[in-house]
Specification:
CATH topology of the largest domain: Spore Coat Polysaccharide Biosynthesis Protein SpsA, Chain A
Helix content: 40-55%
Radius of gyration: 20 Å
Mean pLDDT: 91
Number of strands: 9
CATH architecture of the largest domain: Alpha-Beta Complex
CATH class of the largest domain: Alpha Beta
Shape: globular
Largest sheet: 9 strands, mixed
Number of domains: 2
Amino acid sequence: MQNRISIAMATFNGEAFIGEQLESFLAQTAMPDELVISDDGSIDSTVSVTKTCMDGSSVELLLKQNSHTLGYAQNFNTALRLASGDIIFLSDQDDVWLENKIKIVKKAFEANPEKYLIIHDLEYCDENLQPIGQTKLERLNSIGATERSFVTGMATAVRKEFLNVCLPIPKNALITHDLWLHECAHVLNVKIVLPEVLALYRRHDLNVTADSVINSGKKTNFFSFIKSVDGKETKNSLERKGAVLRELMLWFQRADVIRFCQKITSMKQSSLSKKRRTLEHELAQTEKRLKLYDKNRPIRLFAAIKLYLEGGYVEFMGVKSLIKDILAKV
């Protein structure tokens, strides 16, 4: 049976780059069936550019213009809800896909029926789409991050049946749509990371994503990671992680999630309980790290080392996270 392919895109004042992105959809070697766009009240020519680019295309266009501003994550929530495909690709408005992206991801899903979310590598580029000489996986490896940290919506695709149990995206300002989907997939062990570079990731001044070392438009390494240590940013990251973990514990209590878990893994109730306990433990460790930021640096130094020796950094990046907590200026 042929899988129906949808692209879900959230737009807002994207006239500068959206034309190139749409053209890359239409140049795919395996064409999408549907493009769903949720526009969050653009006041530029985003909508008209979209209509012009898609006019005459065989790809079905569903354009939803919000009556009021929803914000980044909830705008994506709208687009994802409207997508009807068996496989749904997430897309931002300012990047460019390589022509074999859909074909390769689709084949990966077919070869791995037990997996429900796929993310591929991407090439960091400047505003003019000139590569900076580093992919995201290379960057993550350079700072010692794990693949769990590889969360980029524009490089993500999901199966519809998985998406159905992930939605709605929690209405928490700390939780982005892609972080939520990836954390759900991580907990259920249904995520695949493809090493192929399948898109150009444009970094520019108007990017919504945080200006952190992970998303920097400049080539980075471990020393960049150390130099970029910012207490406020790290604290925000930990608060975000805590918010996601609390939502995941609630998510695991939903009847449709329990049914899905039992379907994909023949998971017993005891296994679900074990996963909940794991989330509770991870939340406790996250909250302990957050409390470190209430202390001045000398006291924080000893408290962080004590937490490290107790295994408090196992769920993070180990000694690298310890260094962040010690060096961070609050």
